[in-house]
Specification:
Elements lengths: L15 E4 L5 H11 L4 E6 L2 H14 L5 E4 L7 H14 L5 E4 L15 H26 L6 E5 L12 H21 L6 E6 L6 H6 L15 H8 L10 E3 L2
Parallel strand pairs: 1-2, 1-4, 2-3, 4-5, 5-6, 6-7
């Protein structure tokens, strides 16, 4: 991947990109970073004040056309997924990218002590919502000249770990969903599907999972931007790399 300084500063100008969970952590930093390259970011979250804050920050810093979609992914169903798609269609002619970033850990617990309500909430937010949004946004992505779907992975997607419960199960499912879509979509469409593991990053989720870890030893989320720029660029069109881990 090339250094981000070599990307044209406006190479995402006019591109419309949805980032789920874009009010904090990785989602927020990537929303700001992609906006700086001209992208119109569709900002998703469930907290209205946080959405307004990131919208104002993007609008004040960059001459782009962002949009807010407030939605609780735990409550997403087919009707609400269609409403989500309709809201995007109202503002944009096509969708150039989906970054499935929103996720929750839920709880760190043995399976025997894991409660059903939390289990279901984690699966709804981390995997089922990705399936529904991809399904209902696919027609809008077909209108793009260089569409991308980027899932967010984790080390527990490759090997399950004790006490990671529904989160580990959901990330393994995300990896499988990405691989299925790669085989289904790439031979018949322009859509490229990536699965990206950001590695150890300074976020509130990381702090929850590793409360004794020194946050000063972790990279800032903004350092992930170059990987997203590469995945969204035409440079990645001919690459066989589909699972990317930050190193």
């Amino acid at each position: 991947m090339k250094d981000k300084s070599n990307f044209d500063k406006n190479f995402l100008s006019g591109k419309n990109i949805l980032i789920t969970g874009s009010t904090n952590g990785i989602g927020k930093q990537i929303a700001l970073g992609l906006s700086s390259y001209g992208a119109n970011i569709i900002l998703h979250g469930r907290n209205e004040d946080a959405l307004d804050a990131i919208y104002d920050e993007v609008s004040n810093k960059y001459k782009t056309n962002p949009k807010i979609i407030k939605c609780d992914l735990n409550e997403l169903n087919e009707n609400k997924a269609q409403e989500f798609a309709n809201a995007i269609i109202e503002s944009y002619e096509c969708l150039d990218g989906i970054i499935h970033n929103a996720a929750i850990i839920g709880k760190m617990s043995s399976i025997s002590d894991y409660d059903y309500e939390t289990w279901q909430q984690v699966l709804n937010i981390n995997i089922t919502s990705s399936y529904l949004l991809t399904k209902y946004l696919f027609p809008l992505m077909e209108r793009s000249s260089n569409p991308r779907i980027i899932f967010t992975s984790s080390g527990v997607a490759e090997k399950g770990r004790a006490f990671w419960g529904a989160y580990a199960v959901s990330k393994a499912a995300v990896k499988s969903l990405a691989e299925i879509l790669q085989e289904e979509l790439e031979p018949i469409s322009k859509i490229k599907v990536f699965n990206f593991d950001p590695g150890k990053t300074k976020t509130s989720m990381r702090a929850f999972a590793y409360p004794a870890e020194d946050p000063g030893s972790l990279k800032d989320a903004a350092m992930l931007l170059n990987d997203y720029l590469w995945m969204l660029s035409e440079e990645s069109n001919n690459s066989n790399i589909r699972y990317i881990k930050f190193d």
